[in-house]
Amino acid sequence: MQLISENFDDGLLIRVDHARIDTAGAVQFKDQMRELTASAPDRILLDLEQVGFVDSSGLGAFVASMKQLKTGQVLELASLTPTVDKVFRLTRMDTVFTIHQSSAALFEGQRKIG
Amino acid sequence: MVKNIFLAEDTAVFHRHFSSDPIAVASVIEALTDQYQVFHLPVGAVSNIEIVLSEVINNINEYAYSGADNGPIEILAEKKASKVAFELVDCGTELPGGALPLGTQQVVKCDIEDLPEGGFGWSLIRQLSSDLEYIRRDGENHLSFVVTIDGSSPTNCLFPTLIFPGY
Asked: What is the ipTM of this complex?
């Protein structure tokens, strides 16, 4: 499981470079999210374009990642693939997270930092 | 394994024995979803199969085998006219009370700190499959269910209107 992060003026973009977030990888995902978000700006966007599948453990890891944020930090999601989108809708997690079609436009025009 | 109860080996289009470790499980599910893509099942049906099987096998690993990675699991799949039927067999602990969980939707309209981090599995299984049956026999758990080929969410979702009157 590899998470790639990029700092922008207004937030942190995290891309998941892995096809599945499931029982086998949920703990590792949560730990890496904790590391990356510990010193992150308030707006954190998680791009799931490469993730074709999320199971209930993966969903739990998203919730845990949100719970471990500091006050003021917000975790939003982008680029859900069809199966991931279905799992979010069926569990109503699409009502918990703000979900964007794509991450491309969100930090457009902003300077990359570092 | 003694004998399949719901499906017969000679009519199954997919039949594997594997062990309850996450790597083996992922490869079996991948092989199965590949096979159904070959059958030109709609994408929605293949993803329903992938979701339901992942949750069913997660439960076998986590509860029937308490996380041990060497428990035997058998899967059979049979393609019928408008659906795919599955039977999963394991030698682990019986389901609590000998009955299938209801799969009640988790409540997510709450504060962030109260959000559930688990308990989504049976709700997904119930929403995406139908004809769920469970039998405990000779120390084995036999679970069968069908996934419809049109890829829709079927009918045996028990509780959404009860828990989420707004939906």
From this structure: 0.91
Q: How far apart are CA A15 and CA B74, in angstroms?
A: 36
B121 vs A contacts (CB less than 8 Å)? 55-56
If you measure CA to CA, which chain B residue comes closest to A20?
B26
Kindly report the backbone phi and psi dihedral angles of residue B130, in degrees, each rounded to the nearest multiple of 5, phi listed first.
Answer: -145, 175
CB contact under 8 A, B51 and A92: no
pLDDT in tens, A24-68: 899 999 999 999 999 999 999 999 999 999 999 999 999 999 999
Q: Cα–Cα–Cα angle for B27, B128, B69, nearest 5°?
A: 35
Find the CB nearest A60 among B54, B118, B128. Answer: B118
d(CA B85, CA B13): 10
Verdict on whether the full-model pTM lies above 0.90: no
* A-B C-beta contacts closer than 8 Å: 74
Nearest to A27 by CA among B25, B119, B22, B65: B22
DSSP state of A42: S
